[in-house]
Amino acid sequence: MKRFSIMAVALAVALLGALPAAAAKPDKPPKPPKPPAAAIAVSLDATPVWVHEDADVLNYTVTLHNKTSADIDNIRVKLSAGSVTKQVVQLQANEYKPVGFSRAVSLFDVDCVIGDECELVATATVSLGIEVMTQATMSTPLRPYPSCGLEDGESNVTGGICIWNPGQTGDWTVTLAPTPPSNLKRPSDVLVTVRDHVPGNWCGTWSGKWRPGDEPI
Prior knowledge:
This protein has one helix and nine strands, in the order αβββββββββ. The protein is mostly beta strands. Strands 4-3-6-7 form a four-stranded antiparallel sheet, with no helix packed on it. It has a three-stranded antiparallel sheet with strand order 1-2-5, with no helix packed on it. Strand 8 (about 190-195) and strand 9 form a beta hairpin.
């Protein structure tokens, strides 16, 4: 009995030795490195926030931020809006720096008719050498207004907003002779508002009552 037990144990050990060895688990592939954070951040803003005619000018500010602790030289900033312009700037460590551009509405290749609202798109591209580092894009609405037709001295403007571009600088007097109302016994409410070339920058407003027979305003 004793010998049988020893032989059985020996046989079991022999059978285990005859089994193929278990394959070793392969090593896990290394995780891909995280992409480095952008060294430069960029934002793009423009004033005014809307425009009305070809002569209006948009002033763009491209703000750069060096997010590293080292100086960066030979940064190229390109604004694609109406025409392409480049500027080369240097940024010190952790520095914010604004870069300015200007564009007249007439430089944009946009066919916008009165009554429409069109988008004037601008893109700021920041490059280091030939490598594009980052971009920012924005748009400004163009809402065309009709001409007042005052170039010849008279206009039959019936109401609403219109644009007058004087042919020369100086002091001007604008006279308003309202169209008589259908009911001659009731006065008309008259409102005239004037602004300069900056959209939204209204300079003066006059309002009042006007009756047929009154002097022009």
